[in-house]
Amino acid sequence: xxxxxxxxxxxVVVATGTKLVFVxxxxxxxxxxxxxxxxxxxxxxxxxxxxxxxxxxxxxxxxEQVTKITIYVVNYNRxxxxxxxxxxxxxxxxxxxPADVVVGVAALSPDYLIEVDAIAVIDHSAANSARTP
Length: 133
Prior knowledge:
- The protein is α/β, with parallel strands linked by helices.
- It is built from two helices and seven strands.
């Protein structure tokens, strides 16, 4: 069960469950390991969140079970980049808002502008639904 205290973003997530899933940083690469969208943050963000969804599914987790993500962005500019990231993020998470942090970095792997990692909590004994207190 995931409990959220929600405003425009989630400041606190309290999760209970029986299985933790840790997803390493997902990069903007296609299924063949080739970079996607060189110089295009929107294309890379869509790819990264798509890859994150695939990784979660492979681990038996659903997007609404994600409790925390970390988003790394090269030369992060909040006003310019956050709307682009949010548009890609909502394609995976819909209305679910895990706790998150956006970290501006000087560089990632060559030509990568964004990377996202995640933690999910799966509760096999409950209905696996989230509720807000």
